[in-house]
Amino acid sequence: MRTTPFAAVLVGALLLTSAAARTEAATPPRAARTLGTDPRSLGPDLDRLLADGRLTGAQASALVTDAATGEVLYEHAPGALLLPASTLKTVTAAAALDLLGQDHRFTTEVLAAGRRSGPVLDGDLVLRGGGDPTLLPADLDALAGAVAAAGVTEVTGALRADASRYDGVPLGADWAWDDQAAYYSPQISGLTLTTDTDYDPGTVRLTITPDTTPGRPATVRVTPAEAPVHLTGGIATGPAGGAYSVQVDRRPGGNDLLLGGAVPAGGGTGQEWIAVDDPAALAAAVFAAALARHGVTVRGGVAAGSTPDGAAVLARHDSAPLSALMVPFLKLSNNGIAEHLVKEIGRVAAGSGSWPAGLDRIRDFLHRSGLEPTAARQTDGSGLSRQNLLTARRLTALFAFARTRPWFHAWYDALPVAGDARRMVGGTLTNRMRGTAAAGRVHAKTGSMTGVDALAGYVERSDGRTLAFAVLLNNFAGDSPRPVLDAFAVRLAGDGAATPTPVPTAPASAATGPGSRRSAPHDWETACLTDARC
Q: Which residue among 61, 86, 382, 448 is the active-site one?
């Protein structure tokens, strides 16, 4: 993915500064206050954790409050403006639920643009995207079946892909150029497609199967099979017991996928998810194949184009309600869903499916809700951009506010749960804090990218008290300070002192191996779904 500079995104960025906020950020930390049965050691314990050697030279910000009363129980530079990474998704999720509503759905339609003469449509067939980030090949197949059931067997014109619900800007501000092929950094389009119920929009999946003989080429299968991608290079079969070293990249500006590396013989299949160029073209190609399977012939091929006035709806598909989409969004830290929500907010609330319009509406939501205790800057919905800045104080204020809203349970239930082995419950915390006081009691959003690690959410203590907390760690080098974050949450969940676990023996960016996604240096969270070292 290449970075796309565009000043308009910055117009919609959330930048709220004031003398009061600057004064607050400079205020010395207050002493820890009473917490359960251990009022004396909370402050010293948390101070000791944040003094861990892995944070030498880094920046740390933390705030712990009583979620019901707002009482400050611990703070450490709570007004510091730091990169939030994916903890920013909690802001996007809350704004989407509040502005779009829990029952909001994304609708994909097929329309006839022309006159019907029996089974013949004399004109074009239009696949109009509704911004659905969860549209599956099976959904397109059902739409094709509905077209055939409506009696259409021939289209004299073209199949047109209409992605006009959103603007034509596919990439967020300051997204890393070398993530252009990464599934977690997809192009955002009003018409897109995903391969499975992880719902990574605008991606294809590669399944790599080793040969039985080392040295021979591995087999690579693309899903969807009709995807307009071209494979170059190759993946070798390595010796049994060898390393999984598959590499897949995409040349910018097209869909040539460059293959390299090896998969070990006898090691099972591996899978890679790759973001494509022009997601609307991907969806249209898959739909065209589905039409053919259902006996509908399109004479004019596939092309891009908006829906003309007067076109008649032949079929439609509605996504699950927004409340249900919160689960894959927050549990799996899905960046594509985040950005679709920002553009959908802009389209619904401001008439423009763009980042500037959506971010402007999010800013208004925060202002109306009184969630501006400190300055902040938001330039996307996912936290991928390094222009984002957030404070621990703003996050904990959001957590307290959310408890008063009718959508709270949909939001809360979508947060990852520490140590829960069920993937769609534990999410990015599945393999963290297992066997500790925090397991099952910490419901929190993770956030990570190079030099950034964060955790923010709630602790449901055994004494019945609910805490809201946020910890942001920035600008560290060397060993990951993630054990510090986990020890912090464990300390809040129990009454005894917590000690950070040892540093992982392998970097968090290491491949997780065949049969699972590989993490990448700009986003460590997905590795934690499969790698206990996280």
A: 86
The residue from 61, 89, 189, 319 that is catalytic is: 89
Structure tokens at 256: 């040539």
Spatial separation of the C-alpha atoms in residues 49 and 498, rounded to whole Å: 8
Low-confidence ranges of the chain (pLDDT < 50): 1-34, 36-40, 503-524, 527-534
Distance, in Å, from the CA atom of 428 to the CA atom of 530, rounded to the nearest integer, reads: 9
pLDDT at 281 (0 to 100): 98
What is the chain's Cα-based Rg?
24
Concerning whether 86 is annotated as a catalytic residue, the answer is: yes
State how far the Cα of 527 lies from the Cα of 431, in Å rounded to an integer.
Answer: 10
Q: Which of 61, 185, 189, 333 is catalytic?
A: 333
Is 333 a known active-site residue? yes
* CA dist 160 → 125, 149, 191, 280, 285 (Å): 6, 20, 11, 10, 10
DSSP for 147-187, written as a single string: HHHTT--EESS-EEEE-TTS-S--S-TT--GGGTTBTTSPP
Domains in the chain, CATH or no CATH each:
35-103+322-529 (3.40.710.10), 107-168+279-318 (3.50.80.20), 203-275 (no CATH)
pTM, entire model: 0.89
Measure the CA–CA gap between 64 and 41, rounded to whole angstroms.
14
Beta strands in 38-97 (DSSP E): 59-66, 72-76
